[in-house]
What does this fold into?
Amino acid sequence: MTAQPSLANAIAILGDGGVIAYPTEAVWGLGCDPFDEAAVRRLLAIKRREVEKGLILIAARPSQFDGLADWDALPPERREAVLQSWPGPHTWIVPATARVPSWITGAHSGVALRVSAHPLVAALCEAYGGPLVSTSANPAGAPPPKRLRDLDPGLRAALDAVIEGEVGDLDRPTPIRDARSGAELRL
It folds into this structure.
């Protein structure tokens, strides 16, 4: 594992199919390139999470989701509600295009998206040039860590890099809402 890599090193690790940990709005997250199936499957194995659950994609700006979200499938007022909530700690399930891999959507027809206001997350996505996978950095069923020192040692040992920084001030992971209805799916 690379200790305290620079942003450029982290981007190179991601480009080589690596899995990293980084701070998010509320907890430590795991990330990789969403279009690299081997990287995503490795992330899922590290986390011990089933692919059927699906994964969140994060970005620095909404345009990084171009070609992934079927915005036309949403009524204009719902699309506007989603876009007005970003950047910020709001994850939305939006209709997915055929370009979104099944290892991201899992058993769902939508894709979970968030444009992050966390400066490190936004810098990672901007430097990478597209969205990244974002899931909490904990084994499935364990509480998500709010501090770097609370990362599960076995999970941490399996990572390619840890990007040090501070989590945001949310007290729990971002809420997830359905973009079609606005209904909260995870509080």
The chain has one domain: 2-182. The helical segments are 7-15, 37-47, 76-84, 102-105, 119-128, 153-157. The two ends are 33 Å apart (CA to CA).
